[in-house]
Automatic annotation (TrEMBL):
Provenance organism: Streptomyces antimycoticus
Residue ranges: DNA binding: 34-53
Protein name from the UniProt record: TetR family transcriptional regulator
PANTHER family (UniProt xref): HTH-TYPE TRANSCRIPTIONAL REGULATOR BETI (PTHR30055:SF234), HTH-TYPE TRANSCRIPTIONAL REGULATOR RUTR (PTHR30055)
Limits of the HTH tetR-type domain: 11-71
InterPro entries: Homeodomain-like_sf, HTH-type_TetR-like_transc_reg, HTH_TetR, MftR_C
Length: 208
């Protein structure tokens, strides 16, 4: 088997395990399902599950790496002349248009499963905190700030809070059973209001 085929097989196995776990979580609740039960349902060894997913929470939130890096990557990759807040607004609206899970889009069953699980709720808070830290590091580098200047950290906290608020807004609408197109319209409208609030303070901040 070539290296390319091995990598494809690994990705397929990882996705199959994640899909199996998510189905069980939605049927029975996150806390009620064990790793052993996931392995049996996926027809793999328990060690295979833990090799791909060291934390049980990441079986449900298998896009966790994208959540933690998305804002920092958007700011780092912004074009010349664009501020951090403009880049984040643009990226958020594009994510809403494609119904991206990173900004909260999911099935109602999945959204309810997240909300009903104390463990997953705590994990989401942790991911939001990690996302804030990653954004603060990028803003510190991009603005060549001295270590004693708290501006990048304060900016990251406020910008991340905006995304956290919008994420929960999308999830609430999803749990209520609204269709994705309707949610996207509402999220776009809410995002414009939120970013308009941030614009007076951050419109000229971290312009490349």
């Amino acid at each position: 088997m070539t290296a390319g085929l091995r990598e494809l097989k690994k990705r397929q196995t990882r996705q199959m395990i994640s899909d199996t776990a998510t189905r069980l979580f939605m049927e029975r609740g996150f806390e009620a399902v064990t790793i052993a039960e996931i392995a049996t349902a996926a027809q793999v060894a328990k060690m295979t599950v833990t090799n791909y997913f060291p934390r049980k929470e990441d079986l449900a939130l298998d896009y966790h790496e994208t959540i933690t890096t998305a804002l920092a990557r958007t700011v780092a990759d912004r074009p010349t002349g664009e501020s951090a807040v403009t880049a984040l607004r643009r990226a958020y609206l594009a994510a809403v248009e494609r119904h991206d899970p990173v900004v909260g889009f999911s099935s109602p069953e999945f959204a309810r499963m997240l909300a009903d699980s104390p463990t997953l709720t705590a994990r989401l808070r942790e991911l939001h905190d990690q996302r804030e830290e990653a954004l603060a590091e990028v803003l510190t580098t991009e603005t060549a700030t001295t270590p004693d200047d708290l501006t990048p950290r304060a900016a990251a906290a406020l910008l991340t809070a905006a995304h956290r608020t919008l994420f929960h807004h999308v999830q609430a609408l999803t749990r209520a059973g609204h269709p994705n197109e309707e949610i996207a319209t509402a999220a776009t409208r809410s995002a414009e209001k939120v970013f308009d609030l941030l614009e007076p303070s951050f419109g000229g901040y971290a312009v490349r």
